[in-house]
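Lay summary. Proteins are chains of building blocks that fold into shapes, and those shapes determine what they do. In this project we predict the shape from the chain. Here is one chain we studied, written as its sequence of building blocks.
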Amino acid sequence: MSRSIRKGRIKSIMHRSKRQRWVSSTWERVSSIGLPDVALWFRRRLPILEWAPKYSVRESLLPDTVSGLMLSVQQVTQGLAFAVMSSVHPVFGLYGSFFPPLIYAVFGMGRHLVTGTFAITSLISASAVERLVPPYSGNVSNSSLGPLGLSEFEMQRIGVAAAVTFLGGIIQICLFVCNLGCATFLLSEPVVSSMTTGAATHVVTSQVKYLLGMKMPYISGPLGMFNIYIYILKNITTATVAAVITSVICLVVLVLVKELNQRYKSRIKMEIPIDLILIILTSLVCYFINMEHNYNVEVVGLLPKGIPIPQAPPMGILSDIVVEGFSVALVGYTVSIFLAYNSAKKFKYSVDENQELLANGLTNVIPSFLFCIPNAGAPARSFVLFSNGAKSQVASLISCVIVLLVIYFIGPFLCWLPMCALASIIVVALKGMLIQFNDLKKYWNVDKVDWVIWICTYVFTICFAANIGLLFGVLFSIALGMLRLSRAKTLHLVHWDAEYNKMLEGLNSGFFQTVKIVSVGMPLFFLNAKKFQADLLKMNDKLTGNFVRKQKTDLLLSPVSNGDSNGEAPILQPQRSQSYTLILDCSGITCYDYTGVTILTQICLELKGQGTTVLLTGCNDSLVKALQYCGLESKSQTFLDSVNSALSSLHVQTSQTSTLEAINTTSV
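And here is the predicted shape, written in a compact code that computers can read:
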């Protein structure tokens, strides 16, 4: 008994000492952190501390103000439309246009990136809302609830959308913690371009019912876009004539004015805010003519004033929306990071992919407690900042002030805005994404494989959904990349240049015929190891074949006189067989695996057995160690620093051999 007690005491003492050592080491690391380290960390995680102190009011405030005013119109209209697209009340789109830009201005690095409600994430959210809270279900009532004055049905729907927003943000923050922002290298430009174009096609399809003034059920699932058009064609007689006329007029006016703005951009100081003008005119016409009752035109409806009290999303349904959460996280971040890349490239600054993950995660998690739908970087609104010369995130902050005024004061006046006019604004705003079809010409002329990736990803996106299209595009491009890597040219024959000829000046031309230099131009993995082996052996067979034929020709053309002076015919005697040397430049093997090293070792040993001397140059220390471990002899002359070192070594050996032959000939 006493022995067991002593063992227990010893274990407790050892455990206590380990814990004390861990605490002391942790305290040492913490105490070593100084004030500059803390300041650097805050600047990295709060980019606003980096650019705000350098902000020039004189140079930047005016263009930022103009851009912010133009942006606010887009934020309001697209916020209302994308909320409807997300199957929630339009007012929640205004909240989604106010809170996310505020948060991104603090944590985001894209100075010209606009975050907020986004078409693709709205469609993803709508699938969860329609599945969990279908319309006309008997589980909800239409009684008013809370200060917003909305029905329980509307509150349950925004609860589902907010839960999708929360889960998507949590996933993005988890990816940030795991430092997976660097995984964007898997996203090629053709994949993102085709995915966003396919998603824009889905968005246009979702707006057709509003353009035609039709009532139709929610249709989703595989080939859902085609089923929507089939339903529209079958029920085209139910279209509202007034809505169709209004849509045509709005579309024509929007396209013409925006084209004029773009064409005469250099001549006018500020673009014509046609979206704002159209909202005002259509709302006034709808109010005075009473188009909602007289012509059966659907309008936005009453928008509650003010900002609601924060409320946590319903956590009990998170397990039911995992697919939508991951889709919002991945698709939203993909679009946002590419917009940030383009912004940084155009205006000459850098962005941190991992910090963008954190910023996108926070712009989803925090607003989810304020009844916001999923958000991401918005291409059309970011282009507004590009085209109006915005300098920083101050433009987004100014637009947030305007949106806040709309929420408190102007919102009630938007109740007469026709949904067909709102849909027209959305369709025209998607022009920038739809004209990405022009990229097909670029990909066809540069790389037809990218053209194929674009087409296939677009087809998958329109047939299924944006998240499915993105996943297919990434996997398809990786598969094609691996196939191309396995079939790519792994080595090439290096021709003698002036540098080598000058270095080896004085040698006979036969030296150049007995030495060949082959350069390996890519990493050596299991994907291309077999191709590398086949290419090298094929090249070696070709080179040795030419060398043997040259030796035979020299043999026939080199008579040795063994006759006497009486004119007897000379007798041809064979010359001494010369050795063949292959210099393998391995400086291009930047990385490798076991299969690649094994294949390289096997080739060297096989060529040595055939009488070919193989010299490896440019190998790093780890590659030399791996080759030696796999069975390649460790003689110093096998591994050399460079091609020049190998040629110099051969030069010395050749000179010594020639001297010995001359001595032997003289002695004979």
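What the prediction tells us: The longest helix spans residues 2-31.
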